[in-house]
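User: Predict the complex.
Assistant: Input components as received:
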Amino acid sequence: MKVTIKDIAREAGVSVATVSNVLNGKGRVSAETAERIQRIIAEKNFVPSTLARGLKNKNTQLISVIVPYLKRGNFEENPFFWQLISGVEMGTKDHKFNVMLTRVEQDNDLSFVQMHNVDGLIVVGIDADSELYRSILALKIPTVFMDSYIDQPGLYQVHNDDLLGGYLGTKHLISQGHTKIVLVVGKLADRGVDFQRLLGYKKALAEAGLAYDARLVLENGGSMLGGYHAAQKLISLPEKVTAAFVLSDIGAMGLIKGLYEMGKEVPADLSVVGYDDIFYSEYTIPSLTTIRQDIFKKGKMAADLLLAQINGEPVTEKNILLPVELKVRASTAKIL
Amino acid sequence: MKVTIKDIAREAGVSVATVSNVLNGKGRVSAETAERIQRIIAEKNFVPSTLARGLKNKNTQLISVIVPYLKRGNFEENPFFWQLISGVEMGTKDHKFNVMLTRVEQDNDLSFVQMHNVDGLIVVGIDADSELYRSILALKIPTVFMDSYIDQPGLYQVHNDDLLGGYLGTKHLISQGHTKIVLVVGKLADRGVDFQRLLGYKKALAEAGLAYDARLVLENGGSMLGGYHAAQKLISLPEKVTAAFVLSDIGAMGLIKGLYEMGKEVPADLSVVGYDDIFYSEYTIPSLTTIRQDIFKKGKMAADLLLAQINGEPVTEKNILLPVELKVRASTAKIL
DNA sequence: CTGAAAGCGCTTACAG
DNA sequence: CTGAAAGCGCTTACAG
């Protein structure tokens, strides 16, 4: 059966305490004893149980990523989440941490945290006055918030420069002669990622002397289907718009598809800028101009920050802001 | 701090054994005691630790999905895997199981299984004579193999009807007048998913009286980039081909993009059939004709099968074959 | 119907 | 440098 620390101890003719010591690089164990034990461990392919260890230590080498139900499209639908989680997984793997996948639905059921004694949490895009947010804080375990813009000092947070992203995308469109620019957002609130980007959008508009027109902001366009539906709303707008800035690449893909079905071509009839730079964006037809954020790296940063927090290591900056950049491809063009 | 079974016992004025009994619906506990304990559990928001429980029981309510390194494109790149894992997660959630994400790389490191006492494994697309396969079997824990075609009775396996899929896609193309049909595969072997589909391809060809030409089979086209490169290979083929059957949707997307960049249009210049029916396939331009498999359901089936195995429940059929169907969209057309 | 006790596989003071 | 013992939070025969 499974080999335990006892087996190793017996085989080596020492106590389990000694084996435990070499396992943890602790205690004063003579070099030769340690060596012998190491050899036997390798031989028997012994791996200490995190269960037993965790029961004593209160740590399990297990963390979770929480993605709130239905933001920016489904979890399965948006590669953004996968690249992110992939980054998290990469960032924890070397430190012998594993990540547990946990879909938190409307019930806000967080019992898995207690059940599995999860060591820490990475939470993506949560609203600071949601029930879920309060439940998470109540857990009082190491947590890193991503894309959440929570106005609460002391929290560990990772963001991209969303305001800049909103600004750059809009400015690019303006520089190509567009003046009527639709902004397709997921959900509008008075804070959060989309709000920051909206601020950037407004800033670019103002800078160019263009008036902000709230009717040009279309909601519920965060998912592919949402973007698809936004195409119809866009078409039926009273003013003639010549460009759209969609705050997610999958939303942009949906929008382009919707336009295509109505006989509108991108960028000939309408220029489109996306947001995220998921890997599909290079392969769509036309390829997508977008605001690039390094999603994978972002996940890795969050993991690093969380592990530092778990291990009680000091961090110089709890609030990390990652850069974004404009990636010009084929979905935008100068206005004729 | 964390509330334990002791706290509940003290509060209820009973022993921990009794609390444990009501927790597990075991033992003979008087209705009123049970009720009182239940109330206190709810009140104190007590969740039993799977750590402690697992230490005793040897079960952790934790399973893992293993996706071999780099097949059908990267894990992050191919929505196929996410939909699959999403299905698995759905299938386990109701049974209070969680899934641990584990990227197994070239080192074939499976130590997380022992470390976390994982209860079971779902393995996707593994080669029966790989080192990894042998290591997995050596673990001797409940396992379900997906898309693996392992010729070993007694194993739990889940597949789709890949031969039929290969047949249907090819036949569709033939029915539209195509006779020179390129087959873009991931990796060719003498067994496995792509091999089955190749068999279907050959069958359709034979049925139509068309000769099989090995030069029309292009390898390394399982990923998006692979499909993209396949476009060039396809163009430089000595014979004039009018259609391609790509054994993954993301490969097909890459191929279409590659063709597009060389000035070839789909389906006007070349008809393309994909495989999988990931959710993007409806949104690409043109939308993709493909062989649909219900990936989410497949993941769920695998989860069901695994849980049955873990719980020692009898299953009528260990080897599950799920259906596929042809989904005709806009990337294929009659030859002119 | 209920409780005392052993034990799961580790770690950690504390002796020696 | 090394070991005996307690304890982490549960479950499970076994008594009563």
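Residues 14-18, 21, 27-30, 33, 52, 54-58 of chain A lie near DNA strand D (CB under 10 Å from a C1').
Let me know if you want any component modeled separately.
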